[in-house]
Amino acid sequence: MTTDRKPALRLEGIVKTFPGVRALDGVSFEVYPGEVHALMGENGAGKSTLMKVLGGIYQPEEGRIFVDEQETVMTSPLQAKAKGVMFIHQELSLANELSVAENIYLGALPRKSFGRVDWKMLFDRTDAILDRLKVGFNARTLVGDLSIANQQMVEIARALTVNARAVIFDEPTASLTDAEKVVLFEVIESLQAEGVGIVYISHRMEEIFKMTDRISVLRDGSYRGTLTTAETNEDEVTNMMIGRSLDLSRNHAHAELGDVALQVEGLSCHALFQDVSFEVREGEVLGFYGLVGAGRTEIAETLFGLRTPSAGKIFLKGQEIRIHSPIQAIQNGISLVPESRKEQGLVLGMSCRDNITLPQVDDMTAGPFVSDGAEISIFDQYRDKLEIKTPSWRTAVGNLSGGNQQKIVIGKWLSMRPEVLIVDEPTRGIDVGSKAEIHNLLRDLAKQGYAVIVISSEMPEVLHVADRIVAMYHGKVIRTFTAEEVTEDSLIQAISGIEGGKAA
Amino acid sequence: MAETNLKALGGLLARQGILVAFVVFMIAFALWNPRFIEIDNVFSVIRSSAILGVMALGVTFVVIGGNLDLSVGSLLSFSAIVVLDLHETPGFGPALAIPAMYAMTMGIGAVIGFLVGYLKLNSLIVTLGMLSAIHGLTLTWSGGQNMDIANQQETWFGIFGRGTALGIPIPVLMFGLLAAVLAIILAKTPFGRKVYAVGGNGTAATFSGIPRARVVFFTYIISSFCVATAGLIQASRTMGAQNTVGQGMELEVLAAVILGGASLLGGSGTVFKTVIGVLILGFIQNGLLLAGLEFYVQFVVTWIIIILAVWLDIATKRGKLWSPIA
To answer: Quick check: A115 contacting B, CB < 8 Å?
Structure first.
């Protein structure tokens, strides 16, 4: 890296404490103009806290922040923006009912006399920026009509309206499809070419190695070091993040397969998916892979009684069943670990124990009352089995890390002793270390004889975990691959609708 | 050192702000007017808080379940008028009038529960509309007249409002008993757990196989049962009632529940905390009266208390008194 230039953004010895926790312990970090600098660390390592300090939401107890080597005190996101530090958040903050142009210039609309908005100038300026980003929408489009990826582009366009010195991308690809990612990466490259310093936060190694120049690692709130991307590898980074290396090989070790647990024949749900047939055996992990919107989640929701199928049959252990509600699905032994942990999986304000026992709280009773003993014994059992790290059963689930939260959801459903466990996006937003643990857990469950269905948007994940992979495209099953025959190319082709999916 | 002490104090204020403010208020008023903490004044505050308290117990369930109930004041007027009118209807008497009133009041609760729970309509709109609709119903029933019991010596109807047992006023006893039973239901039964789950995250509750609509429905049934009980105490105490006896009480009830620390977003709060909230509100109103402020001032004060309580609630959650983001 060129060290003769001044850093665009520099943090020095940042310390931030919360009651009982030293969230940031003297973190230093800098990004040069034109550099893409990755910030990595497990959940809870301090990345979000650091970003909040940078955005003026938290005030650090110690340490200094420099923009273009000018010392700056950040007091609010607005002020950070004025100083040229922009954030592109994972969660977008746009007004859906306003046009793209209004969103981009919100709070700084160009004016004519008497305070009237100069619409022509507004739209012209915005279109000029959008041209630079090569996007397929214009200044007048309503933000609510855009895809998530395009909404993200609006956020980026916003960053381009001010003289941004540093742009921080926080998990920018979390909800993007592969094609959308390519566009995003092009935009990052063009920002880079304009001499903007980029901070790139992500859990995805592939992207980190593709996009970044240097990688800085945080662990437990302290700075662990900076690596030059070209001179390091995934193992070294992982080691630095979690203090050990991980095995992310392809899955070939077959468990003993039992009887067919769940069989689905010609299942359709209106426009969402059509004529879907598959079976999953005891001891097997069946993967569902496809783009967002291919109908994978909708199939899971139908099996769990959240949607009513328009055609098709569902057999559980050879018996045809009908499912009209989650209650019926649960009674039939079908469990769903949903896609969105925080919105669908957990009551964040409730204790770990109460979340785990929630579906069976009616059975956790002594007389008319909930029995503390019965609940705690269930909790203890699954805390030990899944190695859930929590100070106590009383701890609110919202205070746990993403990986431990996911284990609580999995524990909740394992404690129901299901026939079929459906896991939708098992590791979304979870750090590398916990990811591997969850993967091993899913494999173990299959070995113990559970029939497991894993839905994922991450190819390495399905390849690693699944015995067979159902590839979906536009609501249809294109092909079912076995672990032996599948290749990355054939899988990508199948889920992109390029071909009917021939054997590799 | 002084700074860390100040910080510790700040933390305590943020966490226990309402209790701390209450204690400061009590001490200040007691210093000013010692009569404030005399035992008979304390009992009189508790007695006069009983009706509000009984209503607040039910609304606690609704609020923890993630909804509002703004119809309770209007429903109180309804239940008081109905029980008095039936009492005076030939052939009824208290033994029939009371169960009939409970049935009708809880019937209205069931309608609200159906609209909010099963049809998933916004509870603010449903209960605000109900506030007005029930008022109309009450006026229609009474023909705009106030209700009185003619022969007050010949009925045992008065015991609910005027009687005592073991030296304790019956309204206080009913409030205490109901609080104990509802506290156990909320804290110790599967139903109570489901109320917290549905209010904390309704979607996650549905994904866990919890019948969300039914749970919400029953929070309104409980709320209307409590209002019926409060209406019984009210009618019995005065042996008569105006059409507007419960007017404005929905806000006082809500103030008590929020003061107790239940979040308006649902999912948190307890029966015990609501009882504390009711007492705080009662003592503040009593203190203002003893201080010689006009009775009507308390409407303004109640509003200020609600605002302060809500502000402290969110300030506690985000750890500072003001923040550029919500």
So the answer is: no
